[in-house]
């Protein structure tokens, strides 16, 4: 095991350098813990790829790792608190384990820099948001000469000069590639069938509550061609669903050209990549949601019918104080335009409760917009003052905690009511799901995501009866009657649905596995998920051959089967809307 030489004393450093780097080539293990958003999750995938490329292996848990990396978030106070809690626990672990290294990166590290070391002397490396490709080098440097802080003001290329002890040309090459926009392709993905693509870093806006511009810097778009090439490469590796990530995705390319909205072009280009069946993106800013983007969403089959459009507040006065750049009316007009263009659009949002000076009347405006927008779901947050933001200095107008708590509970109630009503409207429909696998709580129930991004718990076998929720609760039939059978579903048509005796293990036998696409009949709904049962396998994951027979489907086509279930007819044939056509489907 590699020793941290600075802990042995400076006198021995030079003599032991050779041994250190011999030891470094032995397999060390790492564990990356991520706090915060999908952007951080994806950064962590890239950190894992960099460490693996440097010869380290992933540890099964934090306790057994030689290198622990904490990828931090500072968007909300509770993320800060959780991080410091983890850091405290790591102190005793590192004391009991000589040679263990702790690296802290991400947004909070970018904000705190040196101050982190002063607060926690057991940290070996602090790195920021602009130089994550430097982690392998920084770990080596820290092992040689003690704790290292490297936080840059902007994304830049920093390479070790050749000849420096520990210089590793391979890692430099990797870092050079990373700083030339190839880092995205290096991600160590959790699943082989879905991937994130970071299209842009930073943000040019100045929302009063947000610290992102401070810690991520101004908007920098990755080159268009690189992104399309990355999508092609991912499709070649078996990825069928990509999610485009950025702080303000629909302003993508503004730093490249102002002549045309490049985000719309990017949606079309990535949607046209062979093998990519689904394109998602998060998050767009309402003020930058242009008609061209809505048109690209509507006209590109692969782009999913889901728009996450952060509202933050429904009060024009509060929106102004937040520096959001739109009014509630303008927001609702954009929602209406998107709904007109994209039938069956799912709409989700972010809302902050208790922004400084928010009155009861402001809050009621928010409730009114929530009711009118008809959200499928919403992330609701209590305002949390972030150091360095404009809102953090509005201490004189902070809303009392008990008022915020009351408003928060009322908002959640309205959002849940909207969610359950939108979900109940889907009972009886057939949805295409990207299969994620058996539920963690009940292996007899599988989970998947619809094109609208909704979680579905479904029975994986035609023969196993209507789905139960992951906790084992009985499914409800149309209308919500407990124990109800879906129209045309198992039990109601025993002459139609195959039995185990004739069909064997139907679910897995038919190739159902994580990464498959299947249609599911929706039989029940909850505020945060749907319940149903398997109808038909649509496509296999790439490692199992990709396509399955689909009557009427285009070769390699991208399915969009969201439709009303066929009426029971005693025949296993029905029809389902795929894209803008009806195609026959064989039930069972
Ligand atoms: S758009 Fe506003 S909330 Fe979003 S990252 Fe930029 S500053 Fe933060």
Tags for this model:
disordered N terminus, alpha/beta, pyruvate-formate lyase- activating enzyme, globular, 6-stranded parallel sheet, 32% helix, disordered C terminus, 3 domains, binds iron/sulfur cluster, Rossmann fold, 17 helices, 588 residues, single chain, 22 strands, 5-stranded mixed beta barrel
Number of helices: 17
Under the CATH scheme, the architecture of the largest domain is Alpha-Beta Horseshoe
- Kindly provide the radius of gyration, computed on alpha-carbon positions and rounded to a whole number of angstroms: 26 Å
How many β-strand stretches?
A: 22
The major beta sheet can be summarized as: 6 strands, parallel
CATH class category of the largest domain: Alpha Beta
Q: Runs with pLDDT <50, length 5+?
A: 1-5, 157-168, 174-180, 474-507, 549-588
| Shape, principal axes of CA atoms | globular
Describe the structure.
The chain has 588 residues and is α/β, with parallel strands linked by helices. It has three domains: 5-181, Rossmann fold (3-Layer(aba) Sandwich), CATH 3.40.50.12160; 182-424, tm_1862 like domain (pyruvate-formate lyase- activating enzyme, Alpha-Beta Horseshoe); 429-586, no CATH class. 32% of the residues lie in helices and 20% in strands. The chain is built from 17 helices and 22 strands. It has helices at residues 13-24, 38-53, 77-96, 107-112, 114-119, 135-145, 169-182, 212-216, 224-236, 262-271, 291-299, 316-322, 328-341, 360-373, 401-424, 500-503, 506-509, and strands spanning 29-34, 57-58, 67-72, 101-106, 125-127, 148-150, 194-198, 200-201, 220-221, 241-245, 278-282, 306-308, 346-353, 377-382, 429-438, 446-450, 455-459, 517-525, 530-539, 563-564, 573-578, 581-586. The chain has a six-stranded parallel beta sheet, sandwiched between helices. A five-stranded mixed β-barrel has the order 15-16-17-19-18. The longest helix is centred in the last third of the chain and has 24 residues, at 401-424. The termini are far apart. Residues 1-5, 157-168, 174-180, 474-507 and 549-588 have low confidence and may be disordered. The protein binds iron/sulfur cluster (SF4). Iron/sulfur cluster (SF4) is lined by residues 203, 205, 207, 210, 212-213, 247-248, 285. Residues 203, 205, 207, 210, 212-213, 247-248, 285 line the site of iron/sulfur cluster (SF4).
């Amino acid at each position: 095991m590699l020793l941290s030489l600075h802990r042995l004393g400076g006198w021995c450093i030079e003599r032991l350098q050779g041994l250190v780097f011999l030891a470094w080539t032995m397999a060390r293990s790492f564990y990356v813990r991520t706090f915060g958003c999908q952007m951080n999750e994806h950064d962590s995938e890239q950190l894992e790829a960099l460490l693996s490329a440097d010869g380290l292996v992933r540890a099964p848990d934090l306790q057994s790792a030689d290198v622990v990396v904490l990828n931090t978030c500072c968007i909300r106070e509770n993320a800060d608190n959780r991080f410091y809690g983890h850091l405290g626990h790591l102190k005793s672990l590192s004391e009991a384990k000589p040679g263990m290294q702790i690296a802290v990166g991400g947004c909070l590290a970018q904000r705190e820099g040196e101050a982190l070391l002063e607060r926690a002397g057991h940290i070996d490396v602090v790195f920021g948001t602009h130089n994550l490709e430097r982690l392998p080098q920084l770990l080596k440097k820290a092992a040689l000469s003690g704790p290292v802080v490297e936080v840059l003001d902007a994304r830049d290329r920093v390479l070790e000069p050749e000849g420096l002890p520990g210089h590793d040309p391979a890692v430099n090459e990797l870092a050079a590639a990373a700083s030339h926009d190839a880092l995205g392709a290096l991600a160590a993905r959790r699943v082989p069938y879905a991937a994130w693509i970071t299209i842009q870093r930073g943000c040019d806006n100045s929302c009063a509550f947000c610290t992102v511009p401070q810690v991520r810097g101004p908007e920098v778009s990755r080159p268009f061609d690189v992104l399309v090439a990355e999508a092609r490469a991912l499709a070649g590796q078996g990825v069928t669903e990509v999610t485009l990530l950025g702080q303000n995705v629909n302003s993508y390319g503004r730093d490249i050209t102002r002549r045309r909205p490049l985000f719309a072009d990017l949606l079309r280009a990535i949607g046209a990549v062979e093998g990519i069946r689904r394109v998602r993106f998060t998050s767009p800013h309402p003020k930058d949601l242009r008609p061209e983007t809505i048109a690209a969403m509507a006209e590109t089959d692969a782009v999913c019918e889901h728009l996450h459009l952060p509202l933050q507040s429904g009060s024009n006065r509060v929106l102004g104080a937040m520096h959001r750049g739109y009014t509630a009316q303008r927001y609702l007009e954009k929602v209406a335009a998107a709904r007109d263009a994209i039938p069956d659009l799912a709409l989700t949002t972010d809302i902050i409760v208790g922004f400084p000076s928010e009155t009861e009347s402001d809050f009621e405006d928010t409730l009114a917009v929530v009711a009118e927008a008809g959200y499928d779901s919403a992330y609701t947050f209590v305002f949390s003052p972030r150091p360095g933001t404009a809102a953090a200095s509005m201490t004189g107008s902070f809303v009392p905690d008990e008022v915020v708590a009351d408003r928060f509970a009322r908002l959640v109630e309205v959002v849940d009511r909207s969610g359950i009503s939108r979900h109940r409207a889907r009972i009886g429909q057939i949805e295409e799901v990207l299969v994620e696998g058996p539920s963690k709580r009940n292996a007899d129930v599988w989970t998947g995501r619809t094109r609208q991004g909704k979680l579905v718990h479904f029975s994986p076998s035609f023969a196993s009866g209507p789905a139960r929720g992951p906790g084992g609760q009985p499914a409800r039939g149309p209308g919500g009657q407990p124990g109800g059978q879906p129209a045309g579903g198992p039990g109601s048509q025993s002459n139609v649905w195959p039995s185990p005796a004739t069909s064997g293990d139907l679910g897995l036998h038919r190739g159902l596995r994580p990464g498959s696409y299947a249609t599911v009949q929706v039989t029940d709904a909850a505020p945060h998920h749907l319940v149903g049962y398997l109808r038909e396998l649509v496509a296999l994951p790439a490692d199992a051959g990709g396509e399955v027979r689909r009557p009427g489907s285009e070769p390699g086509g991208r399915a969009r089967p969201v439709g009303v279930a066929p009426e029971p007819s005693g025949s296993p044939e029905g029809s389902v809307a795929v894209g803008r056509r009806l195609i026959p489907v064989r039930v069972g």
